[in-house]
Amino acid sequence: MISSYGKKEDFPIFKKKVNGKSIVYLDSTATTQKPKQVLDAIVNYYEGANANVHRSVYKLADEATEMYENSRTNVGRFIGADSNEIVFTRNTTESLNLLSFTIGESLKRGDRILITSMEHHSNILPWMRLEERGIKLDYAGLDGEGHLDIEDMKSKLKKDTKIVSVTHQSNVLGTINPIQEIGKLAKDNGSTFIIDAAQSVPHMPFRVREEYDFVAFSGHKMLGPMGIGVLYGKYHLLEEMPPFNRGGEMIKEVDFHRAVFEDPPIKFEAGTPNVEGAVGLSAAIDYLKKIGMEDVRRHEKYLTSMTLKNLDGMKNVTYYGPRDVEERGGVIAFNVRDASNLKKNLENKNVKVDRVYHSHDIATFLDDRNVYVRSGYHCAEPLMRTLNLSGTARASFYVYNGDDDVKAFISSLSEI
């Protein structure tokens, strides 16, 4: 294991037995398990400091507000941002929708938005809705191994491209995109640059840079609770943007026909916020910092390399994305062919029918052996259409996985 932190003993869910056997959790790309330190932080907040924030002057409310704002500061430091550049949302999806309904609304007919063919639906649908207003949505393509085709991106970066929004790491292919290079291209073109960092901030060192205008990520993908997300934005851009939601908390003054809004980030946090989520996310960040993000990344590369080497020896298994572990994260999408069916058809006048098991069947087969993987489109249906696939199974790793999990996965997959 990578350190004294990250061990399964810290994660209560791994005490769970199914049919008397331990579970092998390989779906951390969808959501991560939570260490006791995070669970304790949430309980301690509710047992010792529960009150509504930013509203009252009594001591308990002051304590709750201090915990909430300290969490904001901790998140900012984790990615190298100021605390007033950190907006708490529900998740990456809401962060990207916030941008769609604020800066997106300032676009005019004929303006363009450039994304990639590997995006999660959360970085497609918020922009797609703007097509109804005559705004063009362009997609940069991929090469044969699943890398972003930078030359294609350059060719589609037009004078009228106002927004460039890309995933840092694909949740299917594992591809790690060169966001510094893309950010420079966007800035040179005068475009706003947005990063979907849901799959990168939890898994590798990440620091905001001058060319990054906005960065979105989710707490539940980095050991934190569900229902808490983050939008980083340069402060001067947040100042210029209108509110996303309106209601309590985010105003300075209201009369019957006029309102004056708070300064960022509070301007974007209408209503009672998810205080427990912020506190839990802060505890998750503390946990990850004790491991060290360099070690988190190193550990995932080790597990990914070990898995890919085993899959390379399984002739009926196809996996997708870059072959070089330096260019991909700890997520492996794959399919399995039916070797017996292939043999039967070869014997029948040498007619080859390359039947692929449905990804749900693969996941169900592995589930019977307590190995938990994802299956389906992974909220990336346009990518699946690009790859001419009806879905894949997907295994993904995190800090609590080890050699034993990889061996259990490969052994179970071999039984197919």
Summary, kept brief:
This protein is of the alpha/beta class and 416 residues long. The chain has helices at 36-48, 59-79, 92-100, 125-128, 150-156, 179-188, 235-240, 275-291, 293-312, 339-347, 359-367, 381-386, 403-414, and strands at 17-18, 21-22, 24-25, 86-89, 112-116, 136-140, 161-167, 192-196, 214-218, 229-233, 251-254, 259-261, 317-320, 331-336, 371-372, 374-376, 392-396. It folds into 2 domains: 8-33 and 293-414, Aspartate Aminotransferase, domain 1 (Alpha-Beta Complex); 39-290, Type I PLP-dependent aspartate aminotransferase-like (Major domain) (Aspartate Aminotransferase, domain 2, 3-Layer(aba) Sandwich), CATH 3.40.640.10.
Task: Determine the CATH superfamily of the largest domain.
Answer: Type I PLP-dependent aspartate aminotransferase-like (Major domain)
The count of helical stretches stands at 13
Q: Please give the CATH class of the largest domain.
A: Alpha Beta
Q: How many domains would you count in the coordinates?
A: 2
- How much helical structure, as a percent, in the residues? 25-40%
- Calculate the mean pLDDT score and round it: 95
In total, the number of strands is 17
For the largest beta-sheet, the strand count, sense and barrel status come to: 7 strands, mixed
| Protein structure class | alpha/beta
Q: What fraction strand?
A: 15-25%
Structural shape: globular
- The CATH topology of the largest domain comes to Aspartate Aminotransferase, domain 2
For the largest sheet, list the strands in their spatial order: 4-10-9-8-7-5-6
Instruction: Give the low-pLDDT segments.
Output: none
- Write the element-wise H/E pattern from the N-terminal end onward: EEEHHEHEHEHEHEEEHEEHHEEHHEEHEH
